[in-house]
Amino acid sequence: MKRSSILWTIFLALILVAAAGAPCWAADPIRIAIIGPMQFTQGEGHWNGATMAAEQINKGGGISVGGAKRLVELIKVDSNEFLSIPDATNAMELAISRHRADFLIGGFRTEAVLVMQDIAMDNKKIFLGCGAAHPELCDRVTKNYDRYKYWFRITPINSKFLIKVDFLLLNMVAQVMQKELGIPKIKVAIVAEKAAWADPLVAVANENLPKMGMDIVGVWRPSPVATDATAELSAIQRAGANIIFTSFSSSVGIPFAKQAGELKVPAPLVGINVEAQKDGFWAATGGQGNYGLTISTYGPVKITEHTLPFFNEYRQRFKEAPNYTAGTYDAIDVLKAAIEKTGTLEADKLIPALEQTDLKGPAGRLAFSKDHDVVWGPGYTTGLGTQWQDGKNVVVWPYQWENITYEGTVPYKLPSWVMEHYKKK
Amino acid sequence: MGLIWFQIKRVFTLFRSEVLVLPSRVAVLIFVAALVLLPLFSQDPYLLRILILTSVFAIFAASWDLLSGFTGQMNFGHALFFGVAAYTSGLINVHFKIPHFFTIPIGALAAVLTGLIIGIPCLRLRHTYLALTTLAFPLILMGVVFAIPDVTGGELGVSGLDRLSGSRLRDYYITTILMLLLSFTMWKITDSKTGIILHAIREDELACRTAGINTTRYKLMAFCLSGFFAGIAGGLYAHIMRTVGPSTLEVSMSFQVIIWSIFGGVASIYGPIAGVFILFPLAEVLRVVPEWRMLIFALLVLLTLLFMPEGIIPWIRDKIEKQCPRCKIRSVAIRKTCRVCTADLD
Known about the structure:
heterodimer, A: about 425 residues, alpha/beta, Rossmann fold, 2 domains, five-stranded parallel β-sheet, B: about 350 residues, mainly alpha, two-stranded antiparallel ribbon, 15 helices, 4 strands
């Protein structure tokens, strides 16, 4: 009798343990593949942003799917897309068929992302782009909605808008120079690295700068990996340029900015300089990159209430400022909102919810246009202009643009040697 | 009935005396059977995708071997043929809606034409000069691609190509069977009188010309043949990826084919194919250690070439087979005498 009661007790205890554990067994994690060039800074950004989002969600118990909380499990997939397109497509296939990812986030090189997008669409998997800016990726949604509806771009803003921001920054500096230094007509030197992505930018600049009331003194195309830019800088100085309009995504951004500072070229640098977005830029230029202005996505300003906590935590944790591929953070938040709204992981049911996305993330208010592209403009994601001012990378744009000035934004400063040069004149 | 039985017996005898006597031939047989039967055991889309691309690159690598391994015309810009065919197939498929079973051969013919165009100026060059000149051609074409983005799609390339077939399994069989057929054709070319002349040109071109052989014609033919096979690979690649971009012309594409070929063993056709079938899937296996992937890969290739300078396949073949010093026929290494002329093998 005694023995049977012990057995009954053990049996009941086992049932209780099983019952308590049942929700854990039932709730499989939501598997999100983060796919990017993981051996490069862009891939690191993808992974870091996603890690932060997943940890925050899991700390809160996970994502609620039809009432049951499910944790987020990230899968790191190296696309190696800078070096090999077949590698990138294999990585995509690996994420879908082997890792059984529920969602795909990432991508960087447009040529690779186009193929990766096709693989994701073949498998009807939601793919949130966080790296490639080319309009074609979203144009495909318009052209063939039924096939490409699973694609959404989170970051960066469409390259058309990147160019727009680029010109807004140029215009802001031109106005400052006209106002503070009394220069009647601004002369611009266009300097773009010799790379395919910069070609349309040069063409647009050549066409639009005269319409904006500026003169072009010349176009210079240094190698993306040039280590010396003194020849170009001397020629620019001789040409009498008031502003140097840059388009750099590679390492040339460092020597160019450094030597411009050393030579005290009387023309501020404005435009795209990816190297200047990084915290290491100040040390890499030995402080000579002071006053350089570039487009950025994240900065130490209050775009929304999420920006500063995200920016500061990211910087503290990864010892650098987030670059735009860290938009994987926003991507996971967007997914979370859609899943919780619909209570399902089914792609076709999630798409209407994703299309109606309207939430505030670190980069701004996130919403999608009809072609599933992130909306750019006042009140939505705008992008930022960041300037190095005495060792600090501060946000200087938007500054009273369309009535927008994010809290923490400071006025743009002309380089001291530029001021001296024109005041002497 | 008796005739059929006689023929079956004849084929079996031939099979036993020509295939089963050599381990390398048995290995080839097992390799072919494994490729053909694999989908019976697994139709994992990831695995099939890897093998589809492996077959395409195997054709590409073998075509390089035909030109550089056999004829000695060191081509450092083999991606030119691949890229020309890929772009040709892609452009005519997208703009003129021509189906892929026409676009792939047309792409290959465009690569033949390219072979002819670059072959003529390159005939005057040898060794390092030839290698450097051929390296320049894909870079020039890449410049053209970026110069006329309205036609070529610029950095994005051409996308939206027709699929090779409707299913992954059919893609697998198309590429595998084409790889086997084209590899066999290339091997037969190198095994023919033409192949012997190509071999002779590599060894001593002057001696060939002294013997009355028009080496110019044969070298040009090698460029065109190599271009044709690389072009088929390029066309297949375009329709598998459904996008053709500047990456098909990148220097890394040209160097990759050289690494695969040298690793497998040049001047053999099957060596480069084996090289691709080892190295391409290996790069995928090494995804388990992503940080170390490229380092391990490079170390493995370096060590293999250090200890097996002729390539991995000739090294293995020399271990398991011996060549008769008298009649040059190969026998299994455990034999003491030649299986044909009974000469002493040791």
